[in-house]
């Protein structure tokens, strides 16, 4: 892990800590870096300025770079002229014509200046691991600034120097850096370094296929973390943006260890990938289900759910871990992110709000005057005869409800939905048998007996 902070104007307090936290949350831990240490430090670029100056001096001495004393005003006028003409912005090499005496005179007057790469004539060919062979004509490559007037390097010099000194073998980055790669290859050549392998990935795109931008939605790891996505789900989703495991392997759900096993650059494609949140929710739902595969995780899972349940159940802490785990387990198949649990299981912890619009609509949809009331009353009476505890099970309750529907010549759904209305106030939820069992006999019958009749008598 290397902190690239050479652009001091964009430095944000706390950003390094946030980055480290996001990586750790995803299960990605630095082998070496600012915190872990290592043999190639320091790992913060602003602490390596002496190294960049040394290599910049080498480029100057060897004639592969030159000092540029042009003012910001002059450079702006060049950019404006290029914009008006519709041509690409390139420095006009005005300072390349300065002789040694002129340069020394300007240095003696402490005139601010930068150091620019002197691009040679010719062409550069890159063998990209994703895009294959890409050729660049040097005539359209700008003399890039390598050292700024404040003594800090630009990305271009700093990364080439650091990647070499730190033994980096592969540079994997977005395709927006492809046009800069010939400059980097020239720097490797001029400094006598062996270049690493390069891979330029397709961009991440919004639904409208524009470049992913925080102006149009969430882009930061912490955004998705706050919205209740699991780290394994998010990592799984991101890994599949532009990559697939192999020919014939249709697996879509991976742990981090499985991704490490299957990943290969051979199966990375170069096209952009749309960040589809619905697909993220689907992948995340599979990882949520896995949380419930190991009962030894009960306490951790309930602690994870607690902040989201609090929005719907203020007294959630009054319920033990076993009960919350059991309620969440019943709805694990229906959620795409952790906040989904709250509105789907709140009725296990508090009576449903039968005044809510969804409940009112449900009652109007499924009630049939006295017939429905009588059927619910019949079920209630029969349920009272079931013994509490071991006898009040999902299977026993469902058998009783089916028998009641048969005896009264009713369609099963026409009885299940009114019962669900009284217990949950929702059309969708856990199976009615499981709901009765988890609520327990007293609470469940209390909701049936205590519910007002939907019909009135004269």
Automatic annotation (TrEMBL):
Subcellular location: Mitochondrion
Ligase listed as a keyword: yes
Class of this enzyme: ligase
Tree of life domain: Eukaryota
Molecular function as annotated in GO: ATP binding; glutamate-tRNA ligase activity; tRNA binding; zinc ion binding
Gene Ontology biological process terms, A to Z: glutamyl-tRNA aminoacylation
CDD domains per record: GluRS_core (cd00808)
Domain Glutamyl/glutaminyl-tRNA synthetase class Ib catalytic: 1-282
Keywords: Aminoacyl-tRNA synthetase, ATP-binding, Ligase, Nucleotide-binding, Protein biosynthesis
EC number: 6.1.1.17
Record GO cellular component, one term: mitochondrion
NCBIfam families with a match to the protein in the record: gltX_bact (TIGR00464)
Family: Belongs to the class-I aminoacyl-tRNA synthetase family. Glutamate--tRNA ligase type 1 subfamily.
Protein name (record): glutamate--tRNA ligase
Organism: Aphanomyces astaci
